[in-house]
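Subgroup meeting minutes
Present: P.N., E.W., G.H.
Scribe: E.W.

1. P.N. recapped why we're keeping a running log of single-chain structure predictions: easier to compare across weeks, and new members can see raw inputs and outputs side by side.
2. G.H. added today's entry (225 aa).
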Amino acid sequence: MINPRQYLSFSSMDLFERNQERWAEVYLFGSKIPINRGMAFGRQMADSLEKDELSGDITLDLIMEKLPKFEIMDKVIERPKGDIVEVYNPTKGKIEQYKVPVLIAGGERIPLVAKPDTIKKDMTAFKEYKTGQGMWNKGKVDKLNQITFYATAIFITTGKIPNDIELVHVLTEKTTKDSIDAKLTATGDIYRYPTSRHMTEVLNMMVRMKKNWVEMKKVAEKTLI
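Output recorded in log:
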């Protein structure tokens, strides 16, 4: 069967679970996902953190200095005995090769691309940054599939689930009340939500990964042939 990509990422799996037709447009035919102001602001922060450069937004730059960080910033998780895949890096504007962890489930070999915002070198801890106007809470963070996906990729790599996981929320607000011309800026407030993942959640995520991988290949075969 056709494999539309060399690997499974959370963004691909998340879109596939929500809307298979839209997934096909994006991952099979290269359609662009529309970027709203909130997503653009988050991307601006992520790019600045990865490059270790100022963003040009004074408030955001001050906030980024205050963010809790580990040794590694915004890098794909790699495993020495993993599979080599090619991943496009939008920040650098080029394709890069990584040796990534692989989920082996039945006859399926599924390379996983996971890219936490910041992670310890020994992979015992990681943090995910979120920007936005809406508030988070512990219950919502505990159920965030993106964090479970990353924890699962780390478990496959190290044999252990990280014992220190946290979502860090950078609160934003509109600069004006005019919805047309309004831009987003950081308020200066940072909220931190410690969370954890357990073996049951990791095993359930592995089942979801395999199910989506198999279904993606079926959709690709049906769509492209």
